[in-house]
Amino acid sequence: MILLTKLNDVPFVLNDDLIETIEETPDTTIKLTSKNYIIVKESMMEVVAKVIEFRRETNGAITLRKDI
């Protein structure tokens, strides 16, 4: 799960397993496997970095992060 920010400055946590695609057009738009879309403030590369960091930290295991 990664912490992101909606365009209206509301933070939320996204299950990164649900990400299908990420595009910058120019806002960062995340398409989920449910076909829903979320637009976030973070850049495409920031989202990718957060997913990589989360998966490295958890090694695939589900844990509670203290920074959330």
Brief characterization of the structure:
This protein is an alpha+beta fold.
Can you tag this structure with a few keywords?
68 residues, three-stranded antiparallel sheet, alpha+beta, two-stranded antiparallel ribbon, 22% helix, 5 strands, 1 helix
Question: Would you write up a description of this structure?
Answer:
With 68 residues, the chain is α+β, with helices and mostly antiparallel strands. The protein has a domain at 1-41. It is 22% helix and 34% strand. The protein is built from one helix and five strands, in the order βββββα. The protein has one helix at residues 44-58; strands at 2-5, 11-14, 19-24, 28-32, 37-40. The strands form two sheets. A three-stranded antiparallel beta sheet has the order 3-4-5, with no helix packed on it. Strands 1-2 form a two-stranded antiparallel ribbon. Strand 3 (19-24) and strand 4 (28-32) form a beta hairpin. The longest helix has 15 residues, at 44-58. The model has no long low-confidence stretch (mean pLDDT 91).
Helix and strand topology:
Blueprint: E1 2-5, E2 11-14, E3 19-24, E4 28-32, E5 37-40, H1 44-58
Antiparallel strand pairs: 1-2, 3-4, 4-5
Spatial shape: globular
N-to-C CA distance: 10 Å
Uncertain residue segments: none
Neighbour order of strands in the largest sheet: 3-4-5
Output the helix-strand order: EEEEEH
Annotation field: number of helices:
1
Which quaternary structure do these chains form?
single chain
What is the C-alpha radius of gyration, as a whole number of Å?
12 Å
* Count of distinct strands: 5
Strand content: 25-35%
Alpha-beta content class: alpha+beta
Q: Largest sheet at a glance?
A: 3 strands, antiparallel
Tell me roughly what share of residues is in helical segments. Answer: 10-25%
Which whole number gives the mean pLDDT?
A: 91
